[in-house]
Amino acid sequence: MNSPIPSQPGTTETESRWAIPPYLTSEPVLVAILSVLAVVLFLFVGGLSKMYHAQQNSLGDRWFTRGIADLNAQNFDAAMLEFRTALRYSRDNYDYQLNLAKSLIGLRRTAEARSYLVNLWERRPENGEVNLALARIAAQNNESDQAQRYYHNAIYATWPADEQTQRRETRVELIEYLLKNKANEQAQSELIALAANLGEDPGQQERVGELFLRAQDYEHALAAFRLALKSGHGNESARAGAGRAAFQLGQYPIALKYLQTAVAEKSTDTQSATLLKTTELVMQMDPFQRDISAAHRNRIVVTAFATAGERLKACGMLPASNPGAASSSNLASAWQEMKPRITERNLQRDPDLVESAMDLVFEIERDSATGCGTPSAADQALLLISKSHEGH
Fold it and tell me: Cα–Cα distance between 116 and 130 in angstroms, integer?
C-alpha cells in the first residue's frame, strides 16, 4: 500500500491537498501555460471577430440585394437609401459604392455620383461599368470629349459577364449619343467598327443597317440590310430598310424591288408605300433609263417639259393666263423660247434636243425647290432624277 504524501511542516491536511505541485511553478512550464492561454484567447477573439464581420457582411448583402431589386425597378430613392445602409456595414465595398452611384444617376444627382465613380475609377480604371457610368454623366452634362473618352474606355474595358455583348451595347450607346449630337461622321466610323464584329447575324445586321440609315451612310446601310436578308429569314422591315437605302443612293430599280416586297408583306407601312409611289414615278419620268425606246423617251421628255412649265406658273415666274406674255425670270424666258420645239417629232429628228430640254427642266426644278411652295409629286420625281444624273 502506498504511503500518504507527507504534509509540509506548518500546513494543514486541506492546504496540502490544494497545494500547487512544485513542477508547475517552474518558469518553462508557466511560459508554456501562458502561451497556450494566449493562443486560446486569440482564437476565441478571432472567432468572435469573424462572427461579427460575417454578421455585418450578411446585413450589408441583405440591404444590397434589396437595393438591386429597387434599382432594376427604377425605384431610385429606395435603392439609394438601401445602398447607403449597406455601406454602413462595409464602407469600402466596391459593388455597394458602384450601385449607389447608379441610383444617384437615376435621381440625376450626378455630382454626388461622379465623386463615387471617380474614386472607383482610380481603384480600377479598367472596370467597364464604372467607365460607362462616367460616360453617361459626361453625356448628360454635354461634355462631349469626356463622354467619348469614357465610352471608348468602356468598350475596351473588362466586364464581369458576357463581355462581348456588353462591349457591343456600349458602342451602340456611343453611336446613339453621336447621332443625337449630329456627329454623323464620327457615328459612321463607330458603326463600321461595330459592323466588322457582327458576323452575319440577321437581327444584328438589320439593327446596324437602321443605324447606318440614321447616320446617312446609305451604302453601308444597304450592305447591312442585304446581309440581314441573305439567310432567307429576313422580314419586311429589313426589306423596307434596303429599299430606303437604295432610294437615297438613287438606285431606283433596286429600291423598287425591295419596296414592292415590303409593302406587299406589310400594307400598313405607309413610309415604304410613299417611297414606292415616288420610286415608280421617278422610273416613269426618267428619259435616261436603259432599255426604253426612242419614242418612249421622247414622250417622257414632252411630259417633263410641260411639268416644268406648270412649276414656273405655280411659282409666279410664268403668267398662267397668258403663257405668251413676258416672263419674270431667265429660266421662264428660256422655257418659253424652247417650248415650240418640244414635240415628239422634233425630238425624233434632233436627239440632241433631248439633252437640252432636260437640262432646262432640271435647272427649273432645282431653282424652284426652295422658296416656291411644296412641289408636286411629278416635280419631286424630276428633282430626284436631276440629282441622280448630276455629273453624267
Answer: 10
